[in-house]
Amino acid sequence: MESKFEGNFTQQDAIPEIAIERANEVLRSGRLHRYNLAENEIGEVGLLETEFAKFVGSNYCLAVASGGYTLSTALRALGIGYGDKVLTNAFTLAPVPGAIASVGAIPVFVDVTEKLVIDLDDLEAKSKEAKVLMLSHMRGHICNMDELLSICSENKILIIEDCAHTMGAKWRNRWSGTDGIIGCYSTQTYKHINSGEGGLLVTDSPDIMAKATMLSGSYMLYDRHPAGPDKTYYEAIKYQTPNISGRMDHLRAAILRPQLHDLPIRIKKWNERYQILENGLRGTSGLKIVERLEGENYVGSSFQFLLLDWSQNQIKSVVNGCSKRGVELKWFGDAIPYGFTSRYDSWKYVQSEAMPKTDRILSGLLDLRLPLTFTLKDCELISSIIKEVVQKSIDAS
Ligand SMILES: *Cc1c(COP(=O)(O)O)cnc(C)c1O
Description:
The chain is of the alpha/beta class. It has helices spanning 17-29, 43-56, 67-77, 95-102, 120-125, 145-154, 206-215, 250-261, 263-281, 312-324, 356-362, 376-396, and strands at residues 60-64, 85-89, 106-110, 132-136, 158-162, 170-171, 174-175, 182-186, 199-203, 288-289, 296-297, 302-306, 330-331, 365-369. The chain folds into 2 domains: 17-261, Type I PLP-dependent aspartate aminotransferase-like (Major domain) (Aspartate Aminotransferase, domain 2, 3-Layer(aba) Sandwich), CATH 3.40.640.10; 263-396, Aspartate Aminotransferase, domain 1.
């Protein structure tokens, strides 16, 4: 009998009890709106912002309604609008080009490498085309940030970092999200801390944070932002900045704070699981591990590998073979996007040139989630199933 994996790839771990208790306190208070505070109360949202700013060592933090909202707010805060071009990764998730399109700007896609990071040669070649790079650390893969920063500073390109998969990761000793001018994080269920929906935006610039805060819908209550800049920064912009409501509420912030506190432990657990897969699959013939760069301190909340230059049918046979044994692989090479596997050429509202280098990588790219509900034994089983199915497929061809 062939072994079968019985776990569920979309089942996240439970919200900690202490977070549920805090959420109940918020519900009992009736004060859910972030600006609805009792006298001298900072509130869960303000506390979360203060704690997250401290966690990554940024001057300011703003909590909002989603990760995608942080990205569009970041663009607006930098004055990006109709007809402006914005460089971004060809391999990313739909909310990234979506945020660019939402302000009327035009995504210009940059190739992906076999390490699943932005292709710095292609970035350099396109560096004259835009003033902003929305850099997506897609699936938690971080490029050589020192080289990227030098290309961007030479070409006066501002960087917005999309850290949906790198909350808690670092390049060398620098927190992901603090190398660019703005760092954006998601707290959606499938990311590193879970409030269903939510986002966090960090920056060291008081002017940018004042704008982002006004944009998020602060009415004239910006003095209720303990992790925001001094009131004086709002004077010149407060009647000039549109309110595009996208605030976070106390309920979600209450759920997030204990999870942020536990993030280092969660990261350790993810990386143990990731390394079981990496070690288990390394050396499988025909299968390429996405090797991490030396300066990368990643969070292994999902795992990718490449069946580079395999035929479409042969990859399909691996996906089906794994699926039969309970292992759900997502394939970025399918002609039709399923769930989150859309790619630069699925976003038909963007006119992109053909990108053969990226096509080659994505057509061999397989992806799986590693929720913390999986045990280490589960990960060993998943790894052995993938290995067997890949070997069988090679033997059969
Ligand atoms: C999840 C995600 C986002 C933000 O998504 P939301 O669902 O809006 O929170 C942005 N970029 C990437 C790469 C993501 O995976």
